[in-house]
Write a structure and sequence with these properties.
The complex is a heterodimer of chains A (371) and B (81).
Chain A: H1 10-23, E1 30-36, H2 37-45, E2 56-63, H3 71-81, E3 86-90, H4 104-109, E4 113-116, H5 120-129, E5 134-141, H6 146-158, E6 164-170, H7 174-182, E7 190-193, H8 195-201, H9 208-213, E8 217-219, H10 224-240, E9 245-247, H11 259-268, E10 269-271, E11 274-277, E12 281-284, E13 288-290, H12 299-302, H13 318-322, H14 354-360
Parallel strand pairs in A: 1-2, 1-7, 3-4, 3-5, 5-6, 7-8, 8-9
Antiparallel strand pairs in A: 10-13, 11-12
Chain B: E1 18-26, E2 31-35, E3 41-45, E4 56-60, E5 63-67
Antiparallel strand pairs in B: 1-2, 1-4, 2-3, 4-5
């Protein structure tokens, strides 16, 4: 596939791996966080981790929206889905996320009309095909996905589709990064920045990381060579004593992002005062809701939702995994009580979740040569 | 209908982006018929990018986020073939 295959070349991967090996200082341990779940998935799918020296440790960040959705929001979604006459639509992975009374998939089995869609546009199409029913789209995702929801909400209004509404769970990437950087139990040397989020927001929002915290950021693509290249760029910054935002993914990410997407988001959404993140707690100004101008399309205003906060299951250590404090296999229930088939924690649900990536690609503790 | 996403990526988790080729454009509705590498076609929202038939775009959740430019691949010393 064009734009893809050329970035999976094994020989070039070896070249980059050798350069990385040459760039590390003996005796120094490097902790690099890949912010995005898409990177976590690629790292384990392609074995990028195996090409790195043992003193370059990848820490998996919170950039998987399914993984950070708290149980209470799933319960709220199920409450709407079980209202008479509602068709509830959401992306596939979201259906398996456990709430306190089970998942959306289990609610579907009990009789709720819950349908998987591939885009909010699909949900709008269902609304047009079923004018006598209320169609609700469970919107979730970072800034990559939020423009899609914004455009669909605008389109629904423009086309006069009044039976379409949206339960907004969109989150923004900068506040959790700042929360992580302020966290005393995590020492990081640099960040692999989120590629497609940056397509929308650009590189500028990450400038606070070098400016305020003195850490390098390299925005990277999702193919194995992209990730290796980004790691090499981070190591080069560290060895040169530089810290700045660099863009490895120039073929996709413009420095300024996509102004039209930002404009659509600014029109349709506004920041919530705070939003709960699984494992990270409440983070101020980190979640989006529909703006007053689009309030009539807000499913949380159209339907009654319990809005009850539910504590995470005690056995689940998703919070520590999301903060990179423990590796997935160090969780008490990893691969035993918690598997992709019967997940307890959200990190095991999504294929982008760190636990699922470890589980599916057989990555457990392994001895590596220390440089 | 399967309840899993087609690809091995989770759409929600976002950072999935699929390169697609623009086949036909409906300017009035800001939609384009696009095909992925395997020829599967779908309607894609194109309000965020200026595209013409034949262009390659990066698609996420039904929206073209950016146009792909074949000339800008750069891996430093290591060059993709």
């Amino acid at each position: 596939m064009r734009f893809v295959d050329e970035f999976r070349d094994a020989q070039l991967g070896q070249v980059l791996a050798t350069e990385i090996l040459g760039a590390v200082e003996a005796g120094r341990h490097y902790k690099v966080m890949e912010v995005c779940g898409g990177h976590t998935h690629s790292i384990y799918k392609y074995g990028v981790d195996d090409l790195l020296p043992a003193n370059v440790e990848l820490v998996h960040g919170p950039g998987c929206p399914v993984c950070v959705i708290p149980m209470g929001r799933v319960d709220d979604g199920i409450a709407i889905a079980e209202e008479p006459g509602v068709i509830f639509t959401c992306f596939g992975d979201m259906m398996r996320v456990p709430g306190s009374r089970g998942s959306l998939l289990e609610a579907k089995a009990r009789g709720a009309d819950i349908r998987m869609v591939y885009s909010p546009l699909d949900a709008l199409r269902i609304a047009k095909q079923n004018p006598e029913r209320e169609v609700v789209f469970f919107a979730i995702g970072f800034e990559t996905t939020a423009p899609s929801t914004a455009l669909t909400v605008k389109r629904a209004r423009a086309e006069g589709v009044r039976n379409f509404s949206c339960m907004c769970n969109h989150v923004t990437i900068v506040p959790p990064l700042r929360a992580l950087l302020d966290s005393p139990d995590l020492r990081l040397d640099g960040f692999i920045g989120p590629g497609h989020v940056s397509t929308v927001v650009g590189a500028r929002p990450f400038e606070f990381i070098p400016a305020d915290y003195g850490k390098p950021v390299v925005i990277a693509g999702f193919e194995p060579l992209d990730i290796l290249h980004a790691i090499r760029m981070i190591l080069a910054q560290l060895s040169d004593g530089r810290c700045e935002v660099e863009n490895q993914y120039k073929r996709v990410v413009p420095w300024e992002g996509n102004p039209r997407a930002l404009e659509a988001m600014a029109e349709v959404f506004e920041l919530r005062p705070h939003f709960e993140w699984r494992g990270l707690g409440f983070i101020s100004q980190s979640g989006l809701k529909l703006s007053d101008a689009y309030a009539e399309q807000d499913a949380e205003l159209r339907f009654s939702v319990p809005g009850v906060r539910v504590a995470d299951p005690k056995a689940c250590q998703c919070g520590e995994v999301l903060k990179g404090v423990i590796k997935p296999w160090e969780c008490k229930v990893f691969g035993t009580a918690c598997t992709p088939e019967r997940p307890i924690g959200t990190c095991m649900v999504s294929s982008e979740g760190a636990c699922a990536a470890y589980y599916n690609f057989g990555r457990f503790a392994r001895e590596k040569e220390v440089v | 209908m399967t309840l899993e996403c087609h690809s091995d990526h989770c759409i929600t988790c976002a950072d999935e982006g699929t390169p697609m080729t623009v086949l036909r454009i409906d300017e009035d509705r800001m939609l384009a018929l696009c095909a992925d590498d395997e020829g599967e076609k779908s309607s894609i929202e194109i309000a965020l990018v200026d595209v013409r038939a034949g262009d390659s775009v990066l698609v996420h959740a039904g929206v073209a986020l950016t146009r792909l430019d074949a000339g800008s691949a750069d891996l430093g010393g290591a060059q993709p073939r």
